Amino acid sequence: MFAEENGLKGDPRLQAISQAIRVVPHFPKQGIMFQDITTLLLDHKAFKDTVDIFVDRYRDMHISVVAGVEARGFLFGPSIALGIGAKFVPLRKPRKLPGEVISEKYSLEYGTDCLELHVGAVQPGERAIVIDDLVATGGTLSAAIRLLERSGAEVVECACVIGVPDVKGHCRLIGKPLYVLVEPREVDKCSRGSTCVNTKSFDCVSHQGWGG
Amino acid sequence: MSAYRDEDPRLHGIKTKIRVVPHFPKSGIMFQDITTLLLDPKAFKDTIDLFVERYKGKNISVVAGIEARGFIFGPPIALAIGAKFVPLRKPKKLPGKVISQEYILEYGRDCLEMHVGAVEAGERAIVVDDLIATGGTLCAAMDLLERVGAEVVECACVIELPELKGRERLNGKPLYVLVEYLEV
Question: What is the pLDDT of residues A1-28, one digit of tens each?
């Protein structure tokens, strides 16, 4: 579900968060409008608001595990874990975690990938949330859920900064509730227009071709 | 300098939570595993607090973190001191225009990248990673920041392996670490 439909309707923080995310067309390949959260991390207030919204949601839900998907889930998960007093558990690509692991394969558009979790990081009965920057097909999140459930944890919810509007489809795919702050943006909607700060520092891709 | 010598009472808890995994990723390396530190909310919070106490109020506007374990410690520090967080990544991960810095590994080379425009000239920055070994990665990180005109105030790591002399490789830049690992 979107934050706006779940208690945060009209919350001005959400608009600022959405606007702080940069859209990079055709990355990593033609046709993909990449949602770049690195610009959100440059905006201290918007970044703090992002973390605060998740902390406010999960603080009183008796969550003891925040699992973050490498690598962009690492940018948000630890701060949320610290904010709610939970442990942070990294879910990593193969051969990165040094100790004994359990692995879960998942499908990509072409081929498969794999996510790993340290044995013993999560105890049976623990309540967990999974964090990533964005949910698209849900394949990575599904693998994350399976790893946590194999360890005996209860996955309470998956939380992402960005998610596509087809929320119902995702809930069915993953089987778990999904909480998302904002939708992906299209390139032609940089709302700051000619006063966009990005024209000074970044190649604001929203303005390429607009003469901004 | 290292907090270790100041004997802050929180340091013992932090050090005991770091797991040493022998012969990873290859024979002879005693890998310093910080994931076990992250499983202890108090010890993880103490780790962040020690860095925040050091850098708050020092006009640091940039916390740069090295992929991927620097992403775990850097953002909480940045949020607490009011700075932006800048990820320094392996090639082809950052989607926008980047600058790149090559560095030498034991066998071969690697490369670190930073988004153009993320850091402005004159900004005061710290670089964060979980561990300093030979210092090669931290040097590349500092080079990226200095190339865009930032001032690297200090490098900050949870762990130092002093026997690998990374501190000397930092060209006089200060290094702050919480714990040292010495092979007995």
Answer: 888 777 788 899 999 999 999 999 999 9
The complex scores an ipTM of 0.96
- Chain pair A-B, CB pairs under 8 angstroms: 117
Chain-chain contact of B48 with A82 (C-beta, under 8 angstroms) = yes
Angle, CA of B112, B115 and B117, to the nearest 5° = 140
Residue of B nearest to A41 (CA): B85
Q: Which secondary structure element, helix H or strand E, spans residue A155, and what is its range?
A: strand A154-163
The domain spans of chain A are 3-205
**Model pTM?**
0.92
A58-87, pLDDT tens digit by residue?
Answer: 999 999 999 999 999 999 999 999 999 999
Q: Please name the amino acid found at residue A98.
A: P
Residue B148 lies in a domain: yes
- The alpha carbons of chain B give a radius of gyration, in whole angstroms, of 16
Q: Is residue B61 part of a domain?
A: yes
**Which of A40, A80, A87, A203 is most worth mutating to test chain B (most B CB atoms within 10 A of its CB)?**
A87
> Which residues in chain A touch residue B44, judged by CB atoms under 8 angstroms apart?
78, 81-82, 87-88
* Sheet of strand B62-66: strand arrangement: B84-88, B62-66, B124-132, B151-160, B175-180
Is there a contact between B85 and A202 if contact means CB atoms under 8 Å apart?
Answer: no
Q: Degrees (nearest 5) of the Cα angle A54, A23, B117? A: 95
> Could you tell me if residue B1 is inside a domain?
no
Say yes or no for a CB contact (<8 Å) between A78 and B24: no
CA B19 from centroid of its chain's CA atoms: 18
**Domain enclosing residue B62, as ranges:** 9-180
What CATH number was assigned to the domain covering residues A3-205? 3.40.50.2020
**pLDDT number for residue B5:** 54
